[in-house]
């Protein structure tokens, strides 16, 4: 089962003006679709970031992997590691520090997922079986709420409308819960004064008395502000996500906050685990196979976390169905995923490169696909359309801050802001 060919296709799809600590989402989100084909004619899919610097590394890696056996993951990882010479950071900075190890893991991930897809197809078994076997039939996701503008400036309003205050956030939650059946709620904060974001959480608590709630300001608060918010929301939050920046300051908040702290920013690669564990900085790790080196490494991460009493949930950027399938197989096979995972799926509003049918939401959870491999098929017409959109949209890297500054020139993304 040797790799005969790898096709790397960047795509673009519409993204609403979602606000976050870094600025605002641009009108187009970028992803890269990886298709690996073996000498036996089996093919597998992977999905990763679409930023140009990353895309170029994925393209270079693809050439270096031709001829390797799809089971030879150690060799595939070494070849990728040898090629990824420099550190590639995100312009938005929402997923923490970039390191060499994390840069390698990001490039390796889509190839690993595609190889697992192939290995599952060869055996006639779902990827979750290759990861240890599913311990749940369906994977719960949270309603991922964002403050947002009604539409991109100069364009018509989108169907989600504006959400710029607690009432708008509650209305957005009602819409997503009605359409998807979500049973937990995450609010992306770090946009307004902390007191307004506290009010939004309290309004959500009143409107949805039994939904677990989380708040994630992407580390824009000081230690003192984080503690004020934590105290104001005592008994209301399931966890508080990345209130402040860095392992040390997170540990200072964790020592006095009444709820666990979660992160997808201060622990983003294996080398961050020892100091975070030593200092008691986190209670929940939001893993993400796109930067933790794929699915098998994410399972290893989960085992390490279990050893040290850290529970797991899952982080999400804008993504398509190949990633949703991979996330669902992974979360199905990891026993200590204790809370609903994040997904941006509702914001993609039906745009996808996978044929409809394999993935659906039932009561806020995605039933684990039972077909061989990832259980999803590429929709080649949709892929061609989205690739054309990539070529014509004018964006080559995600940059929420520069886009925000077009409309608000004094916007700053410095930390801490409050
Ligand atoms: O901290 C997080 O959960 C994220 O970084 C998730 C996404 O990146 C989200 O904040 C976004 O895309 O604006
Ligand atoms: Mg986060």
UniProtKB/TrEMBL annotation:
Record-linked SUPFAM superfamilies: Enolase C-terminal domain-like, Enolase N-terminal domain-like
Listed Pfam families: MR_MLE_C, MR_MLE_N
Alphabetized UniProt keyword annotations: Lyase, Magnesium, Metal-binding
Source superkingdom: Bacteria
Ranges for domain Mandelate racemase/muconate lactonizing enzyme C-terminal: 166-260
Catalytic site: 188 (proton acceptor), 315 (proton acceptor)
Enzyme Commission numbers on file: 4.2.1.40
GO molecular function, one term: glucarate dehydratase activity
Cofactor(s) required for function per UniProt: Mg(2+)
Reactions the enzyme catalyzes: D-glucarate = 5-dehydro-4-deoxy-D-glucarate + H2O
Pathway: Carbohydrate acid metabolism; D-glucarate degradation; 2,5-dioxopentanoate from D-glucarate: step 1/2
InterPro entries the record matches: DgoD-like (IPR034593), Enolase-like_C_sf (IPR036849), Enolase-like_N (IPR029017), Enolase_C-like (IPR029065), GlucD-like (IPR034598), Mandelate_racemase_C (IPR013342), Mandelate_racemase_N_dom (IPR013341)
Family membership noted in the UniProt record: Belongs to the mandelate racemase/muconate lactonizing enzyme family. GlucD subfamily.
Name the record gives this protein: glucarate dehydratase
Organism: Nonomuraea dietziae
